[in-house]
What does this fold into?
Amino acid sequence: MTFKTNLSIIDKQMAKLFGTNGIRGIFGENFTLDFVSEITLSLANYFKKGPILIGYDGRDSSILISKVVCSSLNSAGLDCAIAGLVPTPCLQFATKKLDYNGGIMITASHNPPKYNGIKPTAKDGVEISRTDELKVEEIYFKKKWKINQMKFGKTQKEEKSIQTYLNGIKEHIDIKKIKARKFRIVMDLGNGAQAITAPRLCRELGCEVITINEKIDGSFPGRGAEPTPENLQDLSKKVVKNHADLGIALDGDGDRSIFCDNNGKILTGDRSALLLSKFILKKNPNSKLITTINSTSGIEDIAEKTNSKVIRTKVGSVEVSRKMVITKAIIGFEENGGFMYGKHNQVRDGAMTLALALDLLSHSNKNMSEEMELLPSSITTKSKIECSKQEARKIIQTLMKENQKKDTTDGIKIIFDKSNWVMVRPSGTEPIIRIYAESDSPEKLNDLFAKYMSKIKSILGR
Ligand code: MG
It folds into this structure.
């Protein structure tokens, strides 16, 4: 079936199913098996043909959702194959490398346990574009799917996803150099899906691996599914106690990574992205780098030194990924620890990012904390406040009245100068508003952040 449509009209008319990152909801409430079946039939119409690779995270509801996804694809006449429990970047890379016509990952990433979700991947191994999300929504709302009663598809197993993924990562690093260093790594897996792949990768690279929260568990009983500086104290302590070279924490579906230096200091996603970008751009001058509007301005300084160019997008990994594809950028990143290496795949990838950090250390005579000291001094922070969509709108409308330079690419960014700004943006996945800020000194950052947090609370009347 083909359809021509005016997407801007659909965008205005239709309720959005896709959030910042795939479709997510509370399983059994607004994310039911009926919904899963119908959205998968819509995806089948969008993909048009199989085979489609299916993966899922460690949530309790993930396996049963995967069965409905496979049955729905089969009933529409598409073949599919089950990669099983894998990190999102593994499913995405395997979709591309093993020549699937698309992929569907069942995950709600770092959301609380009661959530689940669906993230479609195009055959190039990258999340489908925002325009294609609208096409899928149109099919869904207009019920333009069909059951193919002439020929059902088949479901098979795909056993090669994990090894294909790990081999793909290893193509981009100096294995010999890393092995020679016998790094000691502490890994907080957060009961998430990288427990399947990241420790194995490190062991194959000759590292000694110490794991925390390594048991996959959909209730995320360890430190929760989202790594934040506040819940990584255990990682920090274990790095120091074991004299490790590096610590890393991964999120529920293994695409985001937060690092800890050898002194136990937890790094923001911005700081680790600066370090990795500096390393990669030095080897690849005159490159393009994509990042979101809310990440550190230090990246422009780093890019300038290698005659490279930074392009900024709205918040959301899909925005970064798709821009990377179009511009052939070598790096993409978000402030939340989502780092993308274009030579591997234009998606966030916790294990690829870890491999790059090991490659960097193997090429350096400094330890991680000494490497960090050589970076630009700018620092970022962020927080979140629970609020409704209407309240979020009110906050942004009020801040629009401020007499400062503003950028409204996404939410509102109030810019005092190049390295001093505050940004406020409603989350695309949860009923919260996020507040980000950057400054060139810790004192200025504290003052700026406190000032705007109290402004926002007073707008909310709290
Ligand atoms: Mg994730």
